[in-house]
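Input.
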Amino acid sequence: MALRSAPVLLLVWVAVAFRGSSFGASSHFMKYFYTAVLEPRQGQPHFVVVGFVDGQVFLHYDSRSRKLQPRVSWIEKLRKKDPQHWDREIRKIRGQDEMFRADLENLRSRYNDSKGLHTWQMICGCALQRDGSKGGFRQYGYDGRTFITFDKKTLTWVAPDPQAQLTQRKLNADPGKNQRYKAYLEEICIEWLEKYLFYGKETLLRTEPPVVTMSSRTEVEDGIETHVCRVHGFYPREIDASWMRDGEVWLQDTFHTSVAPNADGTYHYWISIQIDPKERGRYRCHVEHDGLQDPLDLELKEPTDSKSNLWLIIGCIVAALVVVGLIAGFLVFFKRRQDGYRAALRNDKGSSSSDLGKWEGATPAAASAILSLCKTLGGWKEGKAPTL
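Output.
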């Protein structure tokens, strides 16, 4: 694995792990990311652990400080209530620090990789779904690629990478240990998730209704309208936002983003659609969320930008023609004035030739005049009175 590509694949693997283990419409989840780095850059730790509850970082550990740091106020309550648990977690993570670095050295030899930056990661966690069912996962990755994954239904390990088959055989040879992995994911992990939800209920169990706005534009080439439905500031993360046509979900000519976090802990999302203006009345943006008492259905409105932009363009063209006419008039005026001035000079020997140079250097500020008039028309577009 090339040195420069390892960090990029590391991020890709983390992103895939987040998406692939979200359990669909799960209500709450807890995840831990373990990352060991071989020959990190100066100042970077060899080992890092980050814990998440519902996407919120609640603890952090790194091999430089060797401290388990709480990252949210509610985890401090648990730390004071059960200090022995916190101490056990620190000892466990410090032991994994040494184990992960040893595993990473062995993997580098197995892959016959040269020295340099290499990564060894684990992601594990559990989820409580809306219907009360439970899920869990445990997965390892090397240099950003999936190395081996635990299947708790069959109590076996799956190795998509041929280099992982040796590890696969060792792990599958101990069914008792695999049974303990399953028990952790379905019992112990769930118990701690419920405990974290209790201590952090003011933030983790709150509901923030979404703010829904619409924007639209008309394509100049073909007249097709593009409408964008933006959903902002909602919590929890689960949301149902879709385009409806005649009361049914419509997926054709639609685009959407992934639900993404805001700085304040809420989330945002948007969906767009392209339609024929004649069928505008058939479409609605439909939004359902726990923070809403009733679903929202927003109708589409005629875009306002296309007509105003057209008049602005026409206005600028007319203004440019007027200014060109004025410039032509000014040039004729100055030409005649200069010709008359030269004639006067020939009759008056005592006049200074420097005055003629001042007249010949005078030119109108055409570009400035055009820009000023366009800005004035722009004020009309925004509903402002033009200043002349």
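The mean pLDDT is 80.
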